[in-house]
Each structure stands twice: as C-alpha cells, then as structure tokens.
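Hey team,

Sharing the NADPH:adrenodoxin oxidoreductase, mitochondrial run so nobody has to redo it. Sequence (488 residues) first:
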Amino acid sequence: MVKMRMAISLSARKFSTFASHPMRVCVVGSGPAGFYTAEKLLKTHEGAQVDIIDRLPTPFGLVRSGVAPDHQETKVVVNQFSRVAVSERCSFFGNVCLGTSVSLSELRDLYHVVVLSFGAESDRVLGIPGEDLKGIYAAREFVWWYNGHPDCRKLSPVLKSTDSAVILGQGNVALDIARILLRPTSELSTTDIASHALEALEESSIRKVYLVGRRGPVQAACTAKELREVLGIKNLYVNIQKDDLRVTPTDEVEMKNSRINRRIYELLSKAAQSGTQSAAPGQRELHFVFFRKPESFLASNVGGSKVVGVKLEKTMLNQRDGPGKQIAVGTGEYAHIDSGMVLKSIGYKSIPVDGLPFDHRKGVVPNIKGRVLGNNVDGSPHPQPGLYVCGWLKRGPTGIIATNLYCAEETVASITEDLEQGSLPSPLKLPKPGREGLSQLLKSRNVRLVPFSGWEKIDAEERRLGSLKNKPREKLASWEELLEIANQ
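Structure output:
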C-alpha cells in the first residue's frame, strides 16, 4: 500500500506539466463511470485538464435517468460529481453528441487521452415471435419515461387499456418498475418522478404485475433491499407458488456460497408463508413467476398488432457450467399469461461508434484493464494509444453505482502506467489543443453547447418548480425546455 501511494505521488509530480502544456483528457459520458474517472485523473495528475462531454444537456447519466424516483438517497452522489465539475481544471460540455457533433478521430486529435464511458443506450432483444407488437416496451424506455429523460417523453405506455403487466426479468430494474406500477401515487407524488408519468400512473388500470424469471427464487438477480421494498408496498397481495420454493442440493450449495442468494430466498419464503390465499377485491397484486421463459408474444385477433399475452415455456435447472452455475433449459411444457402490457427487463446494450472496436456478442469494447484493443495486420490485438474505456462499455451493463468507482480506478491506473512507460507521449513534447480546440470546433458547427453553468440553471429551475409541488424537483423533460433554460 505504501509503495502504491508513493507511485501515485511520483506520477502526480512527474506529470504535473506546465500550465501552457497540460495533459489534455476528454471523458465521453457524464454518468458515474465518467465522473469517477475525471475525479481520479484530477487527483492523480496535478497538471491534467479534464473535459467531460455528454449528448444530453444534463449531467449524471443513470443517476438522473435510471435511479428510481423514490430512491432519493442514492442520488446524493451527484453532490460529489458536482464538486468535480466546478473544478477549474474540469469542464462539462453538454448537448455534444459523439459521432454527430464531433467524431472519435477528432477527439483523439484534440486530446492526449480519450476515455469512453457513455454506458448503454440500447436494449437486448429476445428474438422471439411477436416482439414488435404494440404494448411491448424495453425496461430502459419505461424507466427513462418515468424519470423524465427527453428521449422518452412521448412514450405513452398503455396503462389504461389493461389491468395487468408482465415484466420479463427479476433483477433490480424489474423490481423498480413493479414498484412504480404498484405503489400508491400519493407516495410517488413527493418524489422527483416526471409529471407526465405521475399523471399517467394516477389514471392507470394496472392492478396485477407478474415478475417472470427463467430460474428459481435462489437465483433471483435482485438485491435484498430492492426485494424488501417491493414486498413492503402497502396493501399489496403477493403470490408465490410454494412448489417453486423447493430447493435442490445444488440450490443449497448456492445459498451456502452466497449470503445474498440465501437472503433473497428467505425473504421470498417468508412472503409466501405470510400471504393470504387470494387477493381481496380491489387489492393490487404482485405475482412472482419462477421457472418460466418467454416463447412468444400473443397478438390480438383484431388487426394482430397489439400484445394480449405471453406464451411461456416451463424450465428446469441444469448444472452445465460447474458448481453454482445452473442454467434454465426448456421442458416443452407451455402456459400463458394474459396481459396487454409487457416490459422486457433483460438487460441494456451498448452502441458501437465509428472508429471504435466493438464486440457485438458481449456488447463491450475489447479492452485490457481499460485499454482499448485494436488489431494488428496479422489479427493479433494491441492497445490503441491514448484510447480507454470505463463503465458498461468496458465490463458490460452490470454492477451498482459504486462498481464504477473501482472500474475507474483501474482505467486511470492504466493511463498512469502508460504515461510512465512512454506508451503515451509527454504533453511537453506533444502539446494538444484540448478544450480550446473542441470549443472552436463546436462553435464552427453551431452546436448549442451547454456548459455546467447551463446545467446549474436547469437545476435551479427544476428545484423551484418542485418546491411548488412539495417535490425535490420538477424535471424538465423535453429537449426544448432543457435547452431554453440552459441558454438563458
């Protein structure tokens, strides 16, 4: 530990360049991965200048658009990120889209180091019949809709035309969605949920939510905290088939090796034992459906364009990948759930960018400890000098906010090592224009740049509007509103 601290201290002194020739770094993406990377770089390299660009006018990524509105305590991390953004050696460039406003090759020409941390803005697909029917949504779309993301402001989910919703998946995002659909809107009204979503939920006809998982309660991918929250919704009927709670010797091994798995199973078992046999009239219902995988989506008879249900195949667990690695395999036995709304919570997917190597199967940029890998003429991989990744682009869409801290530390350590070993040229020998060059380029293209001071105007206005409704903030949820306030 002492040697590591000494190495970091030496690196900071070594790369504390003259003010006229600082190390120029561009971080693409202003979510947790981007801000943790910027923070670590500023601390490790005293002479560095770090610019953070984002396609949205608003910073903070999934902390703003992914964290559930009733999880305000999780959003406190933006205070830490804001302190990074107002550093004199850091700048925020909002409303700047990689690939449209500026290309990756242009950024690499302008900066010594480019770190890509823009997360995952697309969705995995199931590839089964009927997936394009109306009433089927990706979890990302729905989460962005209720969180006020400007791309999903006009989603208009079919909340009034059906009394049930099927959520495919049992991870934390799936539980978030179930909670938003089932929790009393009187409780949501004091959160920062988008007004258009709150109004739609107040008129919602949804009374039953089915959480469908391929595997069993021992393998459920959620955390205990999220599960306790959804099970604790007032006046909620919870249905869990007791047969699904039977455990095998392999399940016992999994629970012995994982405290989280054991706790999830205990919470589900307790809920099953304490629940009533059936729901009371008017009571909202949450059904956990285990050992089922989607086979196809069922279409309405009239026109055949709307979803009316999901055909599910019963599964069993097969231990193919070693101890504790049970996978679900189909049994050829089928059933279906009637529903006019389906949400696919099966994972986010990153989007490739021109000039960037991309592993389409894994949905990540090929890398070693954050160093982006290209291919030599003979096909062998080699690091691309000055190009790095962090966050979901680096490791896939997994983990919690804090996971990005360790991810950023590893990437910044790789940058430091490359500087020390000469894989990156010294800023003194090869000065680059950095933010001045980027500002000139964006100005020449008439990009409506939103600096951090523009975000502060948006933030102040949202807080002002929220105070009128006893909410933490009233989110501006359209591109026009955001840009108008930011540029006042």
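Residues 126-347 form a domain with the FAD/NAD(P)-binding domain fold (CATH 3.50.50.60).

Ping me if you want the raw files.
A.
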